[in-house]
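hiii so um. not sure if this is the right channel but i have a protein structure encoded as tokens and i wanna go backwards to a sequence. like what aa goes where. can anyone help
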């Protein structure tokens, strides 16, 4: 084995590894969340020094291409560029110098009204990431959404063994890990704190 690629005795790359990487890459581009189809978020990557996050292909498809956003963090020029396209033709570009940025905003909401009110069930996580500027203005970047964990509610009278059984078969998305990784990259490049 050499690096991350699998090599056979003759020194050839194994096709299975390449196909798996192609599939992983395709799923990353489609959902923005890698191989985990239980969550939806932006596609994130680097081009040189720049951190680039943009609305995933699946999110664009779901919105019928009515909405698309690209965020570029350029540590060399010390600028954050937010490009937003709404209803195909209305485009807006906003350039934010690093010195105007006060903090990174990172928020969580449970979008399932049943679990939000204290009942048992599967949460629908939504993590929001953006910036708080020095003038107290918030600039929203992206939502990371998907199936959350199983919540055994305080107001629920379901026996706990039933809830544990439901948890056994529950699958959840990678929205929390993906949003934290994005916030971590923003924090590294912008050198500011995170607030809720």
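sure thing!! here u go:
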């Amino acid at each position: 084995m050499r690096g991350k690629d699998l090599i056979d005795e003759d020194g050839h790359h194994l096709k299975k590894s390449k196909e798996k990487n192609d599939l992983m890459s395709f799923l990353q581009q489609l959902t923005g969340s890698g191989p985990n189809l239980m969550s939806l978020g932006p596609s994130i990557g680097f081009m040189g020094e720049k951190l680039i996050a943009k609305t995933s292909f699946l999110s664009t498809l779901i919105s019928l291409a009515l909405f698309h956003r690209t965020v570029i963090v350029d540590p060399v020029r010390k600028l954050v560029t937010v490009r937003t396209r709404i209803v195909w033709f209305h485009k807006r570009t906003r350039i934010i110098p690093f010195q105007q940025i006060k903090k990174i905003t990172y928020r969580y909401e449970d979008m399932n009204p049943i679990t939000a009110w204290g009942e048992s069930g599967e949460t629908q996580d939504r993590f929001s990431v953006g910036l708080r500027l020095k003038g107290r203005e918030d600039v929203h970047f992206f939502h990371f959404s998907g199936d959350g964990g199983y919540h055994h509610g305080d107001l629920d009278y379901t026996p706990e063994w039933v809830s544990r059984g439901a948890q056994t078969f529950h699958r959840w998305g990678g929205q929390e890990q993906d949003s934290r990784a994005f916030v971590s990259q923003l924090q590294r490049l912008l050198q500011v704190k995170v607030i809720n």
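oh and The beta strands are 39-40, 43-47, 50-54, 67-74, 79-86, 90-97, 101-110, 121-133, 138-151, 193-195.
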